[in-house]
């Protein structure tokens, strides 16, 4: 049902492995310290969406963490091998292609790199239709931290997602399905696994706004692709700083990511948000058009 391919110098197209068998040294620092980087991409209609953007971000994340990884060509070959194996085994309408890099057991060792392909979770697909309730949670850093403290690796997609997952569980225990992080100085940041988008309608003007990258958030490939498409359809584009009031006053708020796509937010901290049906339909079409 799921496929696994390791990037291995002895196998130019990648080495297929059994995803259900133990594969990693237990001392790999990706395992023991969450020291590594990753990407999650959507595979649908026989194609991996936005592969170029994901490979570019993987390279930047790796460089930020001083990890040396194989070149783009090697990743593409391993991805081809993995999706071919996945499809040969029955495939799925939507699948998640994950690229993972773990620092080796010692810093001198080569990083361990692999690709998995597995069916996309049903929950994300459902939430695209139903929308979600979200809590605003303090991430605990101020909005200027990224520049001041590069060792925090803000803006890199590292394997250290325990805090992000804990925030999601906290939301679920309190009756919501997702989270929007704010900085300690009250600026809107991002979701634990998604980028925030908001829309404003002003007469004939449609405006799409997302938090600014300088706050230390991950540069979202979905946000970027939706922005490119929206610009062609006459939307004005804007970048934060955004405050919670901006979300409450918007004509629509969405969480977007490669796997979840465009998910409308119904409430924040139990307060209902507006969702302009026309703007939502337009953005859904733009999101579906991403290749
Ligand atoms: N922000 C965070 C923290 C994420 O983990 C993700 C995706 O997993 C995103 C934003 C959205 O990024 P993308 O649209 O490239 O999937």
UniProtKB/TrEMBL annotation:
Give a yes or no for keyword Cytoplasm in this entry.
no
Give any Pfam family that matches.
Aminotran_4
Known NCBIfam families for this protein? PRK07849.1-1, PRK07849.1-2
Q: What is its EC number?
A: 4.1.3.38
For the keyword Lyase, the answer is: yes
Which PANTHER family would you find in this protein's record?
Answer: AMINO-ACID AMINOTRANSFERASE, AMINODEOXYCHORISMATE LYASE
Alphabetically sorted, this entry's keywords are: Lyase
The species is Glutamicibacter bergerei
Give the family per the record. Belongs to the class-IV pyridoxal-phosphate-dependent aminotransferase family.
Name-wise, this protein is Aminodeoxychorismate lyase
Coiled-coil region? none
Query: Gene3D superfamilies, per this entry?
Result: 3.30.470.10, D-amino Acid Aminotransferase, subunit A, domain 2 (3.20.10.10)
User: Under the GO molecular function aspect, what terms does this record hold?
Assistant: 4-amino-4-deoxychorismate lyase activity
């Amino acid at each position: 049902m799921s496929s696994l391919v390791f990037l291995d110098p002895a196998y130019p197209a990648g080495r297929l492995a059994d995803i259900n068998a133990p594969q990693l040294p237990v001392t790999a620092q990706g395992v023991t310290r969450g020291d590594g980087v990753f990407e999650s991409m959507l595979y649908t209609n026989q194609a991996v969406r936005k592969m170029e953007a994901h490979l570019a971000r993987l390279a930047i994340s790796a460089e930020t963490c001083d990890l040396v990884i194989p070149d783009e060509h090697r990743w593409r070959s391993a991805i081809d091998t993995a999706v071919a194996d996945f499809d040969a085994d029955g495939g799925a309408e939507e699948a998640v292609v994950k690229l993972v890099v773990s620092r080796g057991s010692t810093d001198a060792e080569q990083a361990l790199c692999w690709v998995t392909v597995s069916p996309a979770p049903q929950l994300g697909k459902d939430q695209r239709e139903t929308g979600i309730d979200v809590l605003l949670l303090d991430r605990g850093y101020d909005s200027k931290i990224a520049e001041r403290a590069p060792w925090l690796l803000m803006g890199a997609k590292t394997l250290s997602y325990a805090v992000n997952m804990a925030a999601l569980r906290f939301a679920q225990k309190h009756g919501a399905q997702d989270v929007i992080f704010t900085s300690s100085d009250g600026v809107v940041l991002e979701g634990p696994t998604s980028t925030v988008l908001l829309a404003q309608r002003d007469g004939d003007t449609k405006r799409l706004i997302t938090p600014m990258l300088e706050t230390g958030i991950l540069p979202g490939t979905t946000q970027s692709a939706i922005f490119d498409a929206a610009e062609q359809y006459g939307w004005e584009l804007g970048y934060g700083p955004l405050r919670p009031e901006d979300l409450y006053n918007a004509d629509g708020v969405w969480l977007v990511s490669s796997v979840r796509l465009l998910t409308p937010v119904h409430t924040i901290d139990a307060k209902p948000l507006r969702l302009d049906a026309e703007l939502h339909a337009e953005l859904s079409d733009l999101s579906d058009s991403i290749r």
